[in-house]
Amino acid sequence: MLMRLARVTAVAAPLLAVLFHAPLPCPAADLPVGKHPVGKHPAAKHVIANRAPLQSTPYLRLPIGAVRPEGWLLRQCELQRSGLTGAAERIYDALQSDSGWLGGDGEGWEKGPYYVKGLLALAYTLDDDQLKQRAQKWVDWAIESQRADGFFGPASNDDWWPRMVVLYYLRDYDEQTDDPRVLPFLTRYFQHQLAALPDRPLQDWGRARAGDNIDIVLWTYNQTGDRKLLDLARLLADQAYPWSSIYTDNRFYDFGSDFHPHHIVNVSQALKMPAVAWQLSGAEADRRAFAAGVANLERQYGRVDGQVSGTEMLSGRKSTDGVELCADVERILSNGVALTILGDAELGDQMERVAYNSLPAHTTANMRQLTYYQFPNQVAATRGRHGFEQDYDNANMPGPHSGFPCCCYNWHFGWPKFIQHMWAATEDGGLAALAYGPNRVTLPVNDSDQLTITQQTDYPFGDTITLTIAAPRALTFPLVLRVPAWCEEPSITVNGQPIDGVKPGAFCRVQREWQDGDQVELHLPMKVEASTWANDSVALTRGPLAFSLKIDEAWEKSNDYLDNFDEYEVRPASAWNYALRVNRDAPEVEVLERGVSDTPFATDAAPVTLRVPARRLPDWGMRTQLGRLELGRADNNYQPLAGVDTPLEPGRPHELRVECRGDQIRVFVDNSKRPLIDHRDDSFARGAIGLRAYENRARFDNVRLDGQPIDDWQEFGGEWSSEASEHRVTAKPSGKLLARGEEDLGDVTLEATITAAAGGNAGLMFRVSDPTDRLDGYRGYYVGLSCVAGESEDSEEPPQSPVTSNQPEEIVELIPFGSTKIRVTYFPVLEE
């Protein structure tokens, strides 16, 4: 017989002893296999603190369903139910009755589990019996498929990875139903893993995403106390990628041809792993890895919508770099999990930014279409290639089958898991508000009474949040409230009385005896702020929201699918190429607030609008032949400094010349009379010169230093071949060729004729020191050419600010980023 143990720390007694019931012993034979309870259950009893020797955590995860959405957030979930989530089994082939995850001979890898993870979370978030019944058949088959040795799932594959997804949704299911089959099932499977992993270790996706497996192993340990589960958790951590080191030391591209550590979905999903592992290891390196990783990612790949660019591999900071939808939902979940473990308020800020910007930007307002990629500057969503390493003709077109067929199965848990992690229990017996939006959290006080805290707010569109407590009697417990770092003058009142010590970027703790009807009000004044992006362009934010130009959209159906789940091309029907008249340091912008509708992310229903003076830039247009010239700096981390889009054809020689004088760096291409890049940087004064290629098959001819040829070279990574003045390199993640005897150069003119294949880049290095074989293992500068075949309807990068225009001044409207399907977010700034 298995007994669940709801363990709480000694200091948790005041409220948790009242609110959270320890589950009763539940024999595995109580229900026949295949029979299950489907009704409503007191999920809050499953709030469980870590057993020794695991580290204690400041917050304890609430199970799915403890937090219910209200207002517009409820409507988002209802639209998801009537949209792609509800219709998925009619639309997608991998979810038909022949699915390998239903015992058939159809797809038996990740697609079915991906979908059920979101379907089940949505079902219990909405308390929807029909969705629960639809999820049940997948749950039953997974449990009933378990073999005598503990392994389960389709016989068509033995991959550990898709089973990790099943573990995740079985935990959600168990916490809602108390189905006595789940814990014995998990126990047998984890025994199998412990025995089998030494000879059949994690590979590829499983190795990248082992943190999800460890999370459920530790959850099971907290209930059963079986210390062999700790051995399994250690084994899984040992076989996984070294994520703490990858995030902390910026090693995303340090694994040769292995793309997994720089795949955007892996990077987003694995962000939680160091925090999860820290509960067992107690290592400070694991505890700090999340913050260090986010700092590295945002510096190199960051975006104003809270995401980092990845198409599908980590890309860059251009206005037309995209992010994959799967990365949104995985990042939201990673932040939610890590926040409960680490207690860092900044993780809540990050979670809100992704949930309220990037996630809704990826779907239509009625949830009947999605886009695989979305860009900060996306002035058309049409069929065509964009020059990405993983490119798809319909990658940014709204439709049910946009891009590669993974996100259409995986995105469904985004809103439900965000809602689940809006609240947590505290280690010492209270409740913590981790994110804000209209919702209510309900926990049982006894067999017949409940504590409910309702969050009434227009947030993130409005700045006031009111929490109303409904309790059967007076209860003493701490209420902990996250205060966003972006808010300079936050305030909190309880029944109209102000609370002292409210600080941005921290948690505010209110300990008192709470009465039925008590009200807590958070006031989070939002001011418009400006940030700098590609080519010194500017983006505007207000609170957690980024803002984009409101463009009239012309929608044209591209493909007919089931019912109204069609695919569209979207083109601009109004001007988009504007420069803003705005002060970066203190933008004076008119803010118009309207009421929040049920669909605040509909383009025509934006609750908040920014009105900004602007002028059109007729010369800022669309790019057809794609190419990119970029100057960057490395110090074991790569930092882009300046770049420009320019026609660069693959397979054709291009002449590249760099003139470096003092802190001025000027770059010319194909005998251009004016430099395409003219940038100042004084980070490095002297060093070597050389050649470099990233993921590119390239040829370098006529390499000249101050007009003279170079004869002696030394390789640092990559595979090079040289003959006379010609140097060739194969397509590898890192290839550097440095000139011997030229290690102490300052002012130089460096030239070469470069023929590069499509994809990746190739170029010249200068003022280089401390070279290694690592991808960005050097100190110095690099100018690279990216040559890309194909055409698209993407905009050019914003012209270098400041700019001038002879066009008449207008007032343009900016609306929330998530409300737009085509948009401009990074604007040139008009000269004062």
UniProtKB/TrEMBL annotation:
GO terms for biological process: carbohydrate metabolic process. Residues 114-415 form the Non-reducing end beta-L-arabinofuranosidase-like GH127 catalytic domain. It holds the Pfam family Glyco_hydro127M. InterPro entries: 6-hairpin_glycosidase_sf, Beta-AFase-like_GH127_cat, Beta-AFase-like_GH127_middle. Transmembrane segments: none annotated. SUPFAM superfamilies: Six-hairpin glycosidases (SSF48208). Residues 1-28 form the signal peptide. Residues 790-811 are annotated as: Disordered. The keyword Signal applies. It comes from the Bacteria. Keywords: Signal. Residues 435-526 form the Non-reducing end beta-L-arabinofuranosidase-like GH127 middle domain. PANTHER family: PROLINE-TRNA LIGASE (DUF1680). This is Non-reducing end beta-L-arabinofuranosidase.
